Every structure is written in structure tokens, then in C-alpha cells.
């Protein structure tokens, strides 16, 4: 190799090392910004709301242990949980065995009515079209969800059934509470499934 070729190769290597260092610094900076944004998002929610979402995360972990997609939900009215659920599609061979549907059914039985006006749903992942429409039909007042679902989310990400103007009821929506924890649980679940 000639001296010119050696010098050129060393220069490219130094340049690549500088680029790698810049990319790593940018990634660290972006991660710090995301962490700050997540902390800010959680500050938008009351301690009580954070507590309800922790209950939903507990339910999601139960689904994980059963081998089902880890989504958990709780339905709250007058400061009490009136329904709770976690995905049970695999466990029960039930296509409607979503966490939200189970929590809604429990709540209806607990209150003796399908009208759940004033109730608040806390769920770890943005509801799908079926669950979003069930929230509308049940007249749920507020939905708080953790992680968004760009593929099937029906509360603002992919589409918005929960606030469709043609329906007689619109659900108020807040998102992002414990989104990182919900996403981590989902990632762990699918990583474990890939290893099996």
C-alpha cells in the first residue's frame, strides 16, 4: 500500500470514528429529551390517575404470565375500581377477550347497568376499534391509555372511533401515562415469544 493510500485510509477511519461519536452523542441527547418528555407527561396526571394506571399495569403483567398479549385495564367510578381485566384471548380462546371488554363487562355487572356514565377507563395500550366502540356504547366519560398503537389504535393514532362526530357520545381521551412501562412490557413479551 502506498503512503497516499495509507494516509487516505487513516483519514477515512478517523472520519468514521468522528461520525460514530457524533451519532452516539445525538442518540444520548435524544434519549435524554425523551426521558424528560416522559417525566413531563406523567406530571400531567394526578397521583390518583397514576395509581389507577399502575393497577392496569398489574393486570397487563397477569396477561403476560398467561402467555397473552400484555394489556391490562381498570374501570373506575366514584374513586373505586368497578371492573378490571387483562387480555385472555389465548387463555379462553375468545376473540373478544380483550382487557377493556372484560373490565366493561365486570363494571356493568357491578353497577347493574350497561350505562357507565362518568366512569374512567385506564388501559396500558390504546384500544382497538372493537374496544373503542364499546367505550362509546357504554358512555365511558374518560379514557386514559399508556402506549399508542399506530397499527390498530382507534382512539387517535390510527383512527378515532372514540370521538367520531356521528355518534351520540364522545369519550374524552388522555394518553401517555406510563407509556414507557407499557411498551417495555410489550417488547419483553414479543422478545420472549421470538425466542420460543
> What kind of sheet is the major sheet?
5 strands, mixed
Strand content: 5-15%
Main-sheet strand order equals 2-1-3-4-5
Number of E strands: 5
Give the helices and strands as they follow along the chain. HHEEHHEHEEH
Would you tell me the overall average pLDDT?
Answer: 88
What's the helical proportion of residues?
Answer: 40-55%
Q: In angstroms, what separates the terminal alpha carbons?
A: 49 Å
Class based on secondary structure composition and strand pairing: alpha/beta
Query: In DSSP terms, counting alpha (H) and pi (I) runs of 4 or more, how many helices?
Result: 6
> Low-confidence segments, ≥5 residues, pLDDT <50?
none
List keywords for this structure.
alpha/beta; about 55% helix; 5 strands; about 200 residues
Could you please describe the fold and organization of this structure?
The protein is an alpha/beta fold. It contains six helices and five strands. It has helices at 3-43, 47-66, 89-92, 99-111, 129-137, 179-195, and strands at 72-77, 80-86, 120-125, 142-147, 172-175. Strands 2-1-3-4-5 form a five-stranded mixed β-sheet. Helix 2 packs parallel to helix 6. It is globular and about 85 Å long. The N and C termini lie far apart (49 Å).
Compose a concise summary of this entry.
Helix content is 53%, strand content 15%. By secondary structure, it is an alpha/beta fold.
Layout: helices, strands, pairs:
Blueprint: H1 3-43, H2 47-66, E1 72-77, E2 80-86, H3 89-92, H4 99-111, E3 120-125, H5 129-137, E4 142-147, E5 172-175, H6 179-195
Parallel strand pairs: 3-4, 4-5
Antiparallel strand pairs: 1-2, 1-3
